[in-house]
Amino acid sequence: MSDETGTPGTPAGSPGGADRSGGPRPEPLRFFGTTWVNHDNGYAARRAGVAVGSLAAAAVSCLVLRFAYQGIMIAGTGSFVTVLIIVMFAICSALAFRNTWEGFAERHDPQRQASLRGLLAIGFVGSLLAYFFRSLTEAPGEKLHREEYDQACEEYERRASRRTGNPTKKKRRR
Q1: What pLDDT, on the 0 to 100 scale, is given for residue 91?
Q2: Model-level pTM?
Q3: CB 134 within 8 A of CB 101
């Protein structure tokens, strides 16, 4: 994993690591490990837990934002500042939702992610909601990882099918 972006350095099924059979190895997902490949070892329970957890985290986050809003009202900063802060959180949450949702289907550019880090931190509620909605249908990021893993398996099978037998045992032409 890259420390700067939080995204894996290599795609799922990368040839950099192979399992015991010599084929590509699936990339683990956060909270799911490699259970997403065969939907085994408590995959359904993990998905339910992730859905409940992300929704609960979003609800608690909204409660914290409510306390912040009350603090602004007590401070008496005026309606302009209040509206500005509400609009800022709404826009940042919408952008964070969209960015997180798109990240489940395709890998993001690390430089773009680094430049959006502050905006995504402000819109954390949107990211939590995107995680919740995606976990209702699949493990967040499963579709992207499955496509990459299946492609890596197909490429491995194509390469492995061309090699038959032990090359050192071939008869030499004279």
Answers
A1: 96
A2: 0.76
A3: yes
